[in-house]
Amino acid sequence: MGACPASLELRRSCLVIDCAGVARGDSAGLAVLLDWLAWARRKSRPIRLENLPASLVAIAKISEVDGLLAATA
Q1: Which helix (H) or strand (E) holds 17?
Q2: What is the distance between the alpha carbons of residues 58 and 24, in angstroms, rounded to a whole number?
Q3: What are the percentages of helix, strand and coil residues in the chain, rounded to 5?
Q4: Residue 73 CB partners (closer than 8 Å, separation 6+)
Q5: Cα–Cα distances in angstroms (integers) from residue 6 to residues 1, 28, 42, 44, 62, in the given order
Q6: Sequence-separated (6 or more) residues with CB below 8 Å from residue 66
Q7: Residue 52, Cβ neighbours under 10 Å: how many?
Q8: Contact partners, residue 11, CB within 8 Å, separation at least 6
Q9: Residue 24's CB: how many other CB atoms inside 10 A?
Q10: Could you read off the pLDDT tens digit of each residue along the chain, which spans 73 residues?
Q11: In 21-65, where does DSSP find H-type helix?
Q12: CA contacts within 13 A on the Cβ side of 16
């Protein structure tokens, strides 16, 4: 198994997903992030997405879900 390019850690009880190591995102990656956001909402856990690749943000805008990603910043 290869190393995951995104880092995942707990900071002050907030789940932080840092995508700094992700060079390019696609619709599948966006779906995973949206699933994690939904999980966090169901569990009442704070979550923050950091350093999202521009390509993933562009797909989120086209799909009109960019507001969901921005709400975690």
Answers
A1: strand 14-18
A2: 11
A3: 40, 20, 40
A4: 48, 49, 50
A5: 14, 15, 23, 22, 23
A6: 57, 60
A7: 24
A8: none
A9: 9
A10: 334 455 556 555 788 899 999 999 999 999 999 999 999 999 888 899 999 999 999 999 999 999 999 887 6
A11: 27-42, 54-62
A12: 12
Which residue's entry shows tokens 């995104």?
6
Return phi, psi of residue 62, to 5°: -60, -35
pTM listed for this prediction = 0.78
Contact 54, 24 (CB under 8 A): no
